[in-house]
Structures are given as C-alpha cells and as structure tokens.
Prior knowledge:
The complex is a heterodimer.
Chain A (H helix, E strand, L loop, with lengths): L3 H13 L26 E3 L3 H4 L5 H4 L6 E7 L2 E2 L6 H16 L13 E8 L11 E9 L9 E10 L4 H4 L6 E2 L3 E6 L1 H15 L3 E3 L4 H12 L10 E7 L6 E7 L1 H11 L5 E3 H19 L7 E6 L3 E4 L3 E4 L5 H16 L1
Antiparallel strand pairs in A: 1-12, 2-8, 2-9, 2-15, 3-7, 4-5, 5-6, 6-8, 10-11, 10-13, 13-14, 14-15
Chain B lengths: L34 H9 L1 H22 L10 H16 L4 H12 L5 H9 L9 H13 L4 H13 L8 H5 L1 H6 L7 H11 L7 H14 L3 H13 L24 H14 L36 H9 L17 H7 L16 H8 L4 H18 L11 H18 L4 H10 L9 H8 L7 H18 L2 H29 L4 H33 L3 H14 L2 H5 L9 H8 L4 H27 L10 H18 L4 H4 L10 H6 L18 H11 L14 H12 L3 H10 E2 L10 E2 L3
Antiparallel strand pairs in B: 1-2
Keywords (chain B): Centromere, Chromosome, Nucleus
InterPro entries (chain B): CENP-I
Organism (chain B): Eudyptes chrysocome
Amino acid sequence: APGLVPAMESADGAVRTLPSIGRLSRGPTFGRAHGRFGLSPSGRLLPPAPRSQENADPQRTAFLLRKQWTLYSVTPLYRFSDAHLRDYARLLSAFIAAEKQKGLAVEVGVELDIKVSVSSLPDLKGSDQDQAAILVQLSSRSAASSKNSEEKLIWSGWFCCVSGDDLSENVPEDFTCLPLFLANGGESYTSIVGSWFQKTFDCCFRRLAISPLNLTWMAAMWTGCKVDKTASAMELVFSVPCLPQPLNISYAIHPEDAKALWDTVQKTPGEITQEEVDVFMDCLYSHFHRHFKIHLSATKLVKVSTAIASAHCDGIIKFLQSQYLTGVLMLLTELAISQIQ
Amino acid sequence: MQRRQSSKTPKQPLQIHHKNQTDLSAWRKGGRIDPEKSVQNHQSPTNQKSDSKQDSLEQALSYFEKVQDHVSLKKNNVLQKHLITVESIALQRGLPPEGFDVLLNVALSGKLADTVNTRLLKSLVPASVIPETSVVSSVSWLCVSKCSGNIQLLFLRWLITMFDFIDHKEQLHALYGFFFSFLQDEKMCPYVCHLLYLLTRKESVKPFRIRRLLDLQAKMGMQSHLQALLSLYKLFCPELVTITLPGKMKTYFKNSEGPWKAAINAVRRRNQENSPVLQPLFLGTAQPQSRKRKWNTQLIIPASSTNKNNLEEDREKNRVDLYSMNESFPVEQLQTFSQLLQNIHHLEFPSQMGSVLTNPLLLHYMNCTKDESIYLRLYYWMGQTLQEECTWCVADNNQYEEEFKDFLETVYKTECFLQEGFSSCEEFLYKSLPLWDGFCCRSQILRLVSWIPLSSFSEMKSHLYDPLAQLFFTSSLYFKCSVLESLKELLQNWLNWHVIHLDSESDSQVHSLNTTLSGLVNVVAELIHFVGWISTVALRLENNPTFLLYFILDFYETVCDMYLRYNLPLLIMPPAGVFYPALLSMDSVSLNQLCYIMYRYRTNLVAAKENELSKTKILQFKFSSQTYQEYNQYIIAMVGCLWTSSAFQKDIHPQGLRMDDELLKKTTVQEFKTSFNIVYHPAMMGYAVLFLQQAWPDDTTFNFSLIKGKKWNWYLEYLYAQGLKGLKVFIESSINRVSQASHSKAGNVQV
C-alpha cells in the first residue's frame, strides 16, 4: 500500500542514524529511549495539570473517577484506525458472543446479550502528538424484555497515552501508540477484550505493576498538588517482609503536614528530582521511627493514597480528582512505555 | 590421536547451520516435524517406557478385534487386563487413529456387556485424529440397533464432543439423512439435533426436512434443540423457513462434553508439552490455552491466520470486485514452497506476527520483504513474551521452565534460519543476564547470545561481558566451555554479517565504509580481547585442562583467519596466558591445534604485508607493528620448543620461557637443552616412543637420541602420518630448513 512508504523511510532512517556501525538485525535499536530497563529518570517535570484541562469538560471524564482500574501496558496497535470504532464494536461484540457460547454459530450483527461500544475520549491527551484515548464499554441487557430494558454497564476499559512522545515519535505511522490500558470489571471480560485486541491489532498486554520506587514518586508528586476542599489524609501502606503472617503498616499523615514537609524539600517549582523524593520519604521514615522504633525503609511500600489518587503496587489505581487526571496518567504512561521498551 | 578434520580444510566463510535450515522437502506443512526432535524423543527414557505401553495397547487392540460374543467381564481376567490397558493409555496419551475402528466396532456391536461398552466408549480419546471411516462404520452399527439405547446415546454424545477431531467429514455429510432419521427417537432427538447442527450445510436444508422438524416441534412442543436446528436452517434458507423463531436462547444444547473433556484436555496438554511449536497447527486452529494462567500470556505461539483487520479494503473490494487482482492470498492456505513463489506478490502477513516463528515459508517471505513494520510487530511481541515468561526474572514462573526452553529454542532456530538476531532478544539478554543463575535454560540462553547483533562496545561491556564474566569465573568447566563456544559463534556471526554487508554495500556506500569499518573493527577487537582475558583466567583457575584449551584454541582458529577469510583488517594474537599453556601442553591435540593456528596467522600476516607493499589500493587499515612483533616472539618460542631445542635461550617474550643456564642447572635436569623439541616435548614423547619401537624393535633402551639426521625426517613423516597436520603445515611454512639433512640449522622466519 502506498501508505507504507513514509513508514518505511522513517524506520530506515532510525537505523541509519546509528553512531558507528550497521546492525545485524532489523527492528528498533536497543536502548533508544531514556528509562531503559524501566529505571526511573533522575528527575521529572511536573505536569502542568490544571492548565491543560482548560478546554476539557471535567464532566466528560468524571465517570473515570473513584473506580478501581487495573493497569496494563500495551504495545503499539498495528493498523488501528479511529475511523472504524463502530466496526470494531461490532466485531468485538461478535467475538464476545462467540467466546461466551463456544461451539455455536454466531451471526455478526444480530442483537446479542452484551452490547459493546467503542468510543473516543478526546479530552485525555497530554500533547498534540498523543492519540485520543479509546474507551471500550460492555453493557448487558436484561433478558426479560428486550425493548425497554435498561442497559447495565458491566465492564469498561480504556486505552490512553498522555505525553507519550517517547514512544509515538519512534514508531512508523501504521502503529497507534496507546501504551496504557485501564480496566474495570470482571477479569473474564478483560481477557476476552484483551485477546481480541491482541489478535486484531497484533499488540501485547502486560500487567503493569508499580514498583515501590515509583510509589514514592507518586507520594511526593501528589503531596505537592493543591486541592481545594479539605482533603483526606495521605496514607502509606507498608508490608513487612519475611514474616510468617503478613503484616501491613499503615502510616497516615495529615495532608497539610505532608504538604508543608514537601514544600521544605522541593527546591525548583515544577520540577522534582529523585533526591528530593528520597529526602521527603526519609523524613517521613525518621519521624515514624522516632515514635514507633520501626525502620520503614526496611519494609516494602505497597500502597499510596492521597486526595489526588491512590495507587497499589499490584498495578491498581483509583483517580480522585478530575483536574489531576491527566497528570497521573502522564506518569502512568511513562511507566507503561518503559515496560514496553 | 586423530585430529579434527575441519581445521585443515578452510571453512567456507558463510557457515550455514545445516541442522537448522529447513529441508526443502519438508516444507509441506504436514511434514514439518523436526527430525532431530523426534529422534531425541525416541531416545528419551520416558519414551522407552511408552514403547512398552505401545506393545500392550497393540495386544489389547488385537484382543478386542477377535473377541467372541458374550465374554463376561467378571470372569475373564484377560478382558479385564486389556480393558484397563486401553483405559489407562487413552486417558494419559490418547489413542492412535487406528485404534478407533476396532474399539468402536466392538463397543457398538453389542458383543459385550454394556458396562464394558460404556467403559470402552468413555476411553475413546484421540491422541491426534479420529479416522472418518471408523465413524462411518459405527454409524452402520447404530442403524442395525445391535447395542442398547444407552450405548447409542453415549456414542452420539461422544461423536458430538469429538466432532472436531474427525479427520474428514465428507462421508459423514453423506450420512446426513441417516442421522436425520434418528430424530424420531425421543431420547436421541436432542443429541441428533446437536449433531445435525454441526453437520448442516446449506445444501442439507430441504423442504421435507423442514416439514419434519416442524412436525416434531408440533408433537414435542418448543424444544431448544429443535429450535436451534430450525434457526440454522433459517439462516441458510430464510425463504424456506417462514416461521418466526424466538430471538435468542441462552443455550441450545446440553453440554455433551461430559466424560471426555478432562481427558481431552490432559492429552492435549501432554501433546502440547511435547511439541509446543507444533501445537497451534493441531486441528488447524489455535487451541484454547490449557494452562490456567494470565490470559495475556502468549507463550503458545499464535497460529497463522489472515489479517482480518482490513475493513476499509473490504469495502473497496466490494466496489471494484472486477479488478480483484490484488486480493491477498490467505496465509492459512500457504502450504508449499511453490505456492509461496506463485503468490509472493499478493501474500499478506498473518494478523499476529508471532506466528511466523513456526512457519518457515513465512520466514522466507519475511527475508525478502523490506517492510520494517513486520519487524517492529515481531519486536514488540517477542520482547513482551520473553520478559513476561522469563523463568528467573518473574516470580512463580519457574514451573514453566520447559515451555520457556522450547520457546527460546524456537527463537534461536528462527534466528539461524533468518541468519540475523532479533533486537528484542538482545534486549532480553541484556536485561536478564545480570539476574541469571547460569543454569536455567543454559544452552538456550548461550545459543541466543551468539546472535546478539553488533553494537557499540560500551553497551556490550556492561550488558553482556560483565555479567557473563561473573558467571564464567564462578561456574563449572563445562559452563566455561559453553560460553567460549557461543562467543565463537557470536564472532563468526558478526564476521559473516560483515562479509555479506561488504558485498552488498561495496557499490553504493563506499564513502561510509571508513567509519563503519573502524566501528566494526573496534567491536570485534573488544570481543577477542574479552575472550583472551577470560581464557587466560580460566586456564589458571582450572589448571589448564585440555578440554578447555580445545575450546579456547577453537575460538582462535576463527581469529587467526579473519583477514583472509572474512576480509576484516584485524588480527589479534592470543595472549601469552593462552599461547604458552597450549605450547607446553601435555597433549598433542592442543599442540597440533596451536601449530595450525600459528600457520594461519603467518599466512594472514604475509598476505597483509604483501598487500601493503603492492599498494594497489590505499589501505585504511594496517596491522600495527606490534602484531608482527608479537607473532615473531611467539614463533621464536615455538621453533625453539619444537625444533632447535633452544626454547630457554632464545625466547624473547617477556612472559616467555627464557631462563638462565645457571637457573636451569639448579633444576638438576640432565640435558635440559634438549628437553623441548618434537622428540622430547611432553606432548610428542609418546609418538617418539612408538616411533622407536617401530624403527628399532629390538632396542628397549628408548634411546631418543637415535632420532636424528635421516631418522629425524622419517620421524617427521611418521608424525604427519599420525594425523598431526597442523604440525606439518607449521613446520613446512615456518621453519626454513637450509639443508634437509641437518635439522640443527633450521631457523625461523620472521615476517
């Protein structure tokens, strides 16, 4: 197809710009982007969160808040097109029906138990280069009467990319970069929908766990964010390793205290460094040690909850503030990209 | 004592991995069974066990073939034994296709009691396929009603469950009318409906059948199984079925998988373990994953299927159907090499690129396309799969080591086939080597190392050499040899790549050759220095075993010939820590190998010198004078050690053998001056003894000094005849024998 030509050229170009020698293999070059091996960069710019929301209506993304989302990373989708979302919904619903009643013939297009909608969420973007987020929703129709039955949302999932330039700049145009996938609902539906995407767009889904190091980043970043209302406490949950019984330690801090501490640690506004995050956490740890004689640095941070969002190391997130939604997504996109590359 | 042949005959620059190249005759999909693997399987102890099982199954089958009427199970031990054999084998491994005819015949003929028939039917689990003929003959038993109603029902349920395992279905379709007639049996009706549902094609839908179904429905009421069949009829022929059917049903048919499902899964899992690569081809479509694991893991390589994601094109195609020249050829139909050639212009890659790994035809196609997106798709899939399934990087994965091994093996074979490494695989190695214990999937990992693409050294050092060196020094001798072997392969792959690259780029990109070549030379030099370093340390750690020395010298057999064989302007001498242990080895194999290597170094250096002197073209690279100097130092030591008995006097290498006469006298070794030459060298002494025995059979004093003058030449001929070809080429090239008669005057040649 003629559309392939620029893609080929750009991929060729990437190979040619290698410093010294040609390569024994085709494909992207190793360690092209920063964050190789999933290491965190030593510093991050804070997202201009509230500002980028100017033209976005918080109502349109409100349904994403206060739900638990399971995180996945997704490799770029091959030959995905925004123009065919309706067709995708149709094919996906046939696929779900086929998966659910294996062995029976299924006609494409007929009314099925589960309705699938695939739509675009244009608000969830960090930069112009980002692909608009894609929302997939499954709803069931009660079997009693098919006419005026209420549709009940049973599963939803969305793909997004917020400031994922690292990835999207480097792939040919046949590929769509939506590296972060968030699912809410039964795992069996996640599996069916994920399988369909994997089959159709030759992509790979992987659970995205959040390392304790990245959780400390979240704790620090979210502490610094302004929240209008009286915010809930910041809570850190630690698990103590090597015990016969699991033991979790919950450490709650008044949000204003945490903010005051963070303000003394952070030097340059709008920018955070690894060192600052470490200092912030060390202060919290030494405070805890003074009272309870427990070294939290020897335990594993498993969960961070603040007024902005809460995140669990298993890769589960809950967004609480719509104005900081894209900011949190930006960090998650970065983590997803580092898992892909 | 026979030396390996290959070191004497120069290897072809492009060393093809014959065992991994697909045999042209095996390109038919059906015949794509790895011969190596099947041979291995037969030799493994578990399969020897299964051979004896095979015998008992054959006995059981021949028993059931001849069994007489009305044998009682309780009284007959033979029947019990054979029945148990059939059951246990069926549930563990599944039955071979030829077993079905016999067992179905006996189970449906009513010869034996129903309990036996039931047990037989329940154990009819296929290992691969069920021959259609056996199903047809069992339908004829069904028609004569020799067996009881329960057995009939069980048989129908079996047939429904096993429908997909029947190898052909044409004759079965011809029996459609027979099955249809069974509908009148009230008990059989639901199962017959299900079977007909599976068998129905458009041409099966006939007005009289619709009438019959409607009659049945009128008689029996709304039955979901009848409705299912009717709705299928309506789907095929809406003009014939005018009644309205209720929109949707939860389930049309009762689950009839019953007693067989667990067994099928067990057998399938077993087959999958034995050959995960072939598994997706089983029945032609991807089987559901048997392991209860994360849904997104795809260690099972997806089956090739056509990319259905062409909505846009589909529509266009409908419009311009007349010009459907560019309709793509479905990959599922690609079976032979000639098909590939005929359809190469309109072939499309499968929807999941990962499936090409098991499809040599598509790999050929991949080799001749320039579309970078296919490599990117493969890169993402493989990278994620390797990371997700890595048994030592991901907790809880260690139980799946065998599957992971097979996957790595497949990746390696693909790399050999394509003659290039995958960058996803390279990244995986860099990420996982620091965590690797050097044990898990060892041979697979080390083989993958040999396909690491060339890249700049800073990466290689920290990501490959450092972790590898740590493991190397702390692991067994065998591991050390394996690492050296794979680094030799790595070097050869780089050099082959360079030769091919040189050919293809010589016309167009001469200008960039300069930087490109220097980069390549640096990377190759670093690899050789790395191997020299670890070899030196390993020889000391392990106390110079011949086995290890063999692998080290094998590496240098490639190194010494890089200039002539691979056209790379680089020669690096082995370090003294390798050279001297080889020179003073107690083993003639090592010494002979060293002689051959030094002969090749000489040939390469002489050729380089000549090129330099002739100045026919401007050379970008010259060997440094240090290389020549090192070579000369070594050659003096060698000639002193093998020929002039002057090793202790003449060796000028700083780490060499030079010793003062005073010191040597203190050793109280008599005649230390003659301790090293081709007669007295410890590696050669054995030959000298044998030679003496043959030349002077009566002399038992072992007077080695007799070997001189003419006898010296005879002795040389004797050594050459013993297969020391490396020694021969070395002596003939590097020792300038002024007079054939006087060996003492031989001198060395400096280049």
